[in-house]
Amino acid sequence: MAFDISIEAQDGTGSFGAYVARPKTDANAPVIIAIQEIFGVNAGMREICDTLADQGYIAICPDLFWRHKPGIELTDKTDAELQQAFDLFGSFDMAKGIEDLKATYETAKTLPGSTGRVGAVGYCLGGFLAYMVACNQLADATVSYYGVSIESTLQEADNIASPLMLHIAKKDQFVSPEAQEKIHTGLGTNKFVSLYSYDADHAFARPNGNHYDSDCATLANKRTADFFAAHLK
Fold it and tell me: What is the C-alpha separation between 121 and 151, in angstroms, rounded?
């Protein structure tokens, strides 16, 4: 796909693209960084950005797989694509991903039309990275959908200094009940954190995904919309 903007990597190794969706109004708006799943900046992520733009935000979705290959775009519809996505996840450098999100954050603050307020929302891999964005204080408000491996980095939560909302799937095949319990125990008393659990599988809010759950997605997305309206506008 053709990306809308290019962002310089902080390590000087190159630049990466990002999809940008803008609201129809000419008024300045907060920016929300949409953080990809293991499928790249695909149609689902662009749809999420377009929805955020309809809600009055500038949405930016950086291509975090660019160090493998720019413009990777997969779905969950075929075994071959799923295998490729899991392979990418297995070889993904989390530290470099967070570094690229730092560069995205700096770009987001100064995008034309930006108010300087920046939020972030992530899904799956992006759900974990969204949690790390909050831990690294790279957003004014952050939402994580079914983030994987959050329970292994709970020691980072002491650094959270802005509102964070987590949507957790009770039937998540990639986040065990034990891991979910650790997340609730580790974050439940943090004054910045709101936790919500849903009777659904992983990726219940993925547009047109195999495990999409309309009722749970609608509720979670409404909570997300209200959360960003309260903390970014």
Answer: 18
- Spatial separation of the C-alpha atoms in residues 214 and 70, rounded to whole Å: 32
Catalytic residue chosen out of the listed positions 63, 100, 140, 172? 172
Measure the CA–CA gap between 177 and 224, rounded to whole angstroms: 23
Query: Does 63 participate in catalysis according to the annotation?
Result: no
pTM: 0.97
What average pLDDT does range 143-170 have in this prediction? 97
Domain that holds residue 208: 5-232
CB neighbour class for 58 (10 Å; exposed up to 12, middle 13-18, buried from 19): buried
Task: Write out the two tokens for 101.
Answer: 């999100």
- pLDDT of 92: 97
Q: What is the pLDDT of residue 26?
A: 81
Catalytic residue among 76, 202, 211, 213: 202
172 is catalytic: yes
Average pLDDT, the chain: 96
| pLDDT higher than threshold 80 for residue 31 | yes
Q: For residue 96, count CB atoms less than 10 angstroms from its CB and return exposed for 0-12, middle for 13-18, buried for 19 or more.
A: middle
- Look up the CATH number of the domain holding residue 94: 3.40.50.1820
- For the stretch 115-137, pLDDT in tens is 999 999 999 999 999 999 999 99
- Number of folded domains in the chain? 1
